[in-house]
């Protein structure tokens, strides 16, 4: 009997909503609180609780068939690892909205992205940032940081940042000004682009039909 594995964020901004949408699809899991593998009851879909940044790689590596992750992270990993391909976005989920924005120090007199040509940009999304800026003819030096990106300009290690913004309060607290939105992101359900065996595909189709009902009822 085939089973599917779906990876979601263990703890963070997407965790509760990710689990919530799966439960509303009728999935039930047997778990103890701290275990990272939850066995699916009734419906053969098991849950993996992992770091969100690891989800796209796990899908590309075939560790699981489904994952809920921000579009920004999926795009970044596809660009880094796979020429921008390899994962299929099955459904945007309508939560976890944020934007990847280029921001500069408040007091820096800069009016357009073009003025950043050749500058140092701190980011956790180097490949996505380079690709999006490249579309606008701007080439930058990406300075990669895995978090607290907003601190870099004040430390003098970057001229600008490219990071996720949701309320904008982290930018304000660090005296940064949003110059331009590069990419709008939300949580989405992804699978590897390679075909699944028939039995797994049938399971996936049943799950997607339930998901469609759940999401349409919520709209
Ligand atoms: C995210 C993001 C920004 C901040 C934006 O960081 O990287 O730093 O939230 O949110 P705001 O616009 O509402 O202030 P997170 O809290 O995930 O920490 P991290 O960057 O260290 O991972
Ligand atoms: Mg994270
Ligand atoms: Zn951050």
TrEMBL record:
Which superkingdom, per the lineage?
Answer: Bacteria
This protein's GO cellular component annotations are:
cytoplasm
Which residue ranges does the record assign to the ATP phosphoribosyltransferase catalytic domain? 51-212
The region annotated as signal peptide is none
GO MF terms held by the record: ATP binding; ATP phosphoribosyltransferase activity; magnesium ion binding
What is the activity-regulation note?
Feedback inhibited by histidine.
Q: Does the keyword Glycosyltransferase apply?
A: yes
Give the GO biological process terms.
Answer: L-histidine biosynthetic process
Provide the cofactor list for this protein: Mg(2+)
What pathway is this protein said to act in by its record? Amino-acid biosynthesis; L-histidine biosynthesis; L-histidine from 5-phospho-alpha-D-ribose 1-diphosphate: step 1/9
Which transformation does this protein catalyse, written as a reaction?
1-(5-phospho-beta-D-ribosyl)-ATP + diphosphate = 5-phospho-alpha-D-ribose 1-diphosphate + ATP
Q: What is its EC number?
A: 2.4.2.17
Compartment(s) where it occurs, according to its Swiss-Prot or TrEMBL record: Cytoplasm
* Keywords (A to Z) from UniProt: Amino-acid biosynthesis, ATP-binding, Cytoplasm, Glycosyltransferase, Histidine biosynthesis, Magnesium, Metal-binding, Nucleotide-binding, Transferase
Q: Name the top EC class.
A: transferase
Record's function text: Catalyzes the condensation of ATP and 5-phosphoribose 1-diphosphate to form N'-(5'-phosphoribosyl)-ATP (PR-ATP). Has a crucial role in the pathway because the rate of histidine biosynthesis seems to be controlled primarily by regulation of HisG enzymatic activity.
- Which family, according to UniProt? Belongs to the ATP phosphoribosyltransferase family. Long subfamily.
Write the protein's name.
Answer: ATP phosphoribosyltransferase
Q: Which organism is it from?
A: Elongatibacter sediminis
């Amino acid at each position: 009997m085939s089973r599917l594995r779906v990876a979601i964020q263990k703890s963070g901004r997407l965790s509760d909503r990710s689990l919530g949408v799966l439960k509303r699809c009728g999935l039930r899991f047997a778990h103890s609180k701290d275990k990272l593998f939850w066995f699916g009851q009734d419906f053969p879909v098991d849950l993996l609780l992992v770091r969100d940044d690891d989800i796209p790689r796990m899908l590309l590596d075939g560790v699981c068939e489904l994952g809920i992750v921000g579009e920004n992270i999926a795009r970044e990993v596809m660009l880094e690892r796979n020429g921008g391909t390899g994962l299929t976005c099955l459904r945007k989920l309508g939560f976890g909205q944020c934007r990847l924005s280029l921001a500069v120090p408040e007091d820096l007199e800069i009016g357009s992205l073009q003025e950043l040509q050749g500058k140092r940009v701190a980011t956790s999304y180097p490949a996505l940032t380079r690709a999006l800026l490249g579309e606008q003819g701007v080439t930058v030096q990406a300075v990669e940081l895995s978090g607290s990106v907003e601190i870099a300009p004040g430390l003098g290690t970057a001229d600008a940042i490219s990071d996720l913004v949701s309320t904008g309060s982290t930018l304000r607290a660090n005296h940064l000004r949003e110059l331009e939105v590069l990419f709008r992101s939300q949580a989405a359900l992804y699978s590897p682009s390679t075909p699944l065996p028939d039995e797994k595909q049938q399971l996936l189709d049943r799950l997607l039909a339930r998901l469609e009902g759940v999401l349409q009822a919520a709209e």
